[in-house]
Amino acid sequence: MTARLIVLGSANTDYTVVVDRHPTPGETLLGGDVSVATGGKGANQALAAARSGALPVFVGAVGADAGGRALLDALGAGGVDVSTVARVADAPTGVALITVARDGENTIVVAPGANGRIDADAVVATIADLAGPGTVLLSQLEVPLDVVHTAAEAIEQRGGRVVLNLSPAREIPEGLLGVTDPLVVNASEAEAVSGASITDVASAQRAAQGLLDRCHSVVITLGGDGAVWAGADGAGHVAAPRVDVVDTTGAGDAFVGALAAELADGAALQQAVSAGVRSGAAAVQWRGAQPPR
């Protein structure tokens, strides 16, 4: 069976604590009780895609531990196919340490664990088995860059489409950038890859247009200002609805997962961006990286 959407990415156990404000370097603050949940950018985006109506196949790795079992159970219960996820014995399941301030802003430190053990050859074999013309491969950068690049080349050979969320931001090969359709970045990530200063919607639109000579299409998310997009069919801005912000932790992943689900269903980029904006706005109204359906 050909998969419409394959999500290559990380799966973590999230440990989250709420604080009145983020500490300064060297400072110790008291926070609230620690909450434990499933997370990781790949897992978050796969679940967001499933909640948007897709049937995503998740490709990743977890440890042979209780955290790994809990992650697979949560993903499976959420409508994600986890049959190709590797269980590795030489590393623990990934962990994310998250602090959330009262205003909803967050800081995150990730210990990759098993996410760093994803095998490129196994990923290529999975793509060969499941991908065909029109299959969307969605990936982020919490897994080894060489694995992402190899997977992108494999999906291109099968006639598929690469959606790359350049997060966490890092320098990537131009060959990988050149196959992305779209490249999805927030304002700071867009500044890093384009060299442009992004201060508002207009400057984000200019940056997106400027990146089109390096990738097929671009989406730049702007938080409460929605998102801009640019591609072969034009460019535009989708405004975000005004909502009460509780926690921004899962907003970006909710956006990307919904966008990929729409693209996998054959939607145009503008329609996919609109779905992403709605999903991101819904996500910030809940605490945690994986808000309820």
TrEMBL record:
Give the record's free-text account of how this protein's activity is regulated.
Answer: Activated by a monovalent cation that binds near, but not in, the active site. The most likely occupant of the site in vivo is potassium. Ion binding induces a conformational change that may alter substrate affinity.
Q: Which GO terms describe its cellular component?
A: cytosol
Query: What keywords were assigned to this record?
Result: ATP-binding, Carbohydrate metabolism, Cytoplasm, Kinase, Magnesium, Metal-binding, Nucleotide-binding, Potassium, Transferase
UniProt-listed Gene3D superfamilies: 3.40.1190.20
The protein's required cofactors? Mg(2+)
Where on this chain does K(+) bind? D247, T249, A283, W286, G288
SUPFAM superfamilies according to UniProt: Ribokinase-like
| Uppermost EC category | transferase
**What are the GO BP annotations of this UniProt entry?**
D-ribose catabolic process
Q: How is the cofactor bound?
A: Requires a divalent cation, most likely magnesium in vivo, as an electrophilic catalyst to aid phosphoryl group transfer. It is the chelate of the metal and the nucleotide that is the actual substrate.
* Annotated metabolic or biological route of this protein: Carbohydrate metabolism; D-ribose degradation; D-ribose 5-phosphate from beta-D-ribopyranose: step 2/2
- Compartment(s) where it occurs, according to its Swiss-Prot or TrEMBL record: Cytoplasm
**Protein origin, superkingdom:** Bacteria
Q: Which reaction does it catalyse?
A: D-ribose + ATP = D-ribose 5-phosphate + ADP + H(+)
Name the PROSITE patterns for this protein. PFKB_KINASES_2
Quaternary structure (record): Homodimer.
Recorded protein name is Ribokinase
State the organism of origin.
Answer: Microcella putealis
